[in-house]
Amino acid sequence: MSKWILEFDQVVYGYPCSQRSAVQGLSLKVQAGKRCTLIGQNGCGKTTCFLLANGLYQPQGGTVRWQGNPLRYDRPFLTQLRQQVGLVFQNPEHQLVASTVEEDISYGLHNLGVPESEVAQRVQDAIAHFDLAELTHEPIHHLSLGQKKRVSIADVMVLHPKLLLLDEPTAYLDPRHTRELIGQLQQIHAAGTTILLASHDLDFVYRWADWVFVMDRGRLVLEGTPQDVFRQRELLEQLQLGVPLAIELVEQMQAIAKQQEQTHPFTSDFTLDQWHQQLLSLRRLP
To answer: Structure pTM?
Structure first.
């Protein structure tokens, strides 16, 4: 079996009435078992990439492969594919369809004709795993955004996918719900699910990802480990992406140390408070 769980080979896709293809000759490979991220400006093709991976869109050129085999677009194949490739939309309102949390989580299983006894067990497992017990019978429209995001992930994970796609999972979340979501992603990955997500949160990407894909205007322009990708500061600045805060702080500390060495070569030891004040002064807006 191929180590690449998902592959794009020179994939092209454009929307009607658009002068430019959303995805233009996109080639990338997602390795099984990895935590991968897609980064890039809005409109670079990240969401389109996910919709192609899940079979919701059919490429106008090139090939998408799942576990080494080209996607087919007949109903039986796509039904099977969408059990194995789960997609969580950026806006949970686009995904939640039932009246209550319990009904929504069971919706996909019922559509697949899963026996009722198995549906009940898998729904209860998902409710427990995603800490939704208090919300089981709650109307969907009463939930907070963070709770809706949790339910939308449970909707997908109840199908036991091999690959989880998430489009901007931390968007609009407050710090507490972001921490909870990251914890859930850690558990999902530890249980054996490959994850590919799109994010603008470079600090999260740097801390979490095993592999980073950088897209621009529908093409892959850079990939590698977070350490290797974020070393390419000049390119990332040209793409108007920047670098994570941790890297900025390290670079600024190195600049402070170099300046201190040049101005006071024999008294270069800074106290912690001096480092703090220097960093703050560098990071303050003019």
So the answer is: 0.89
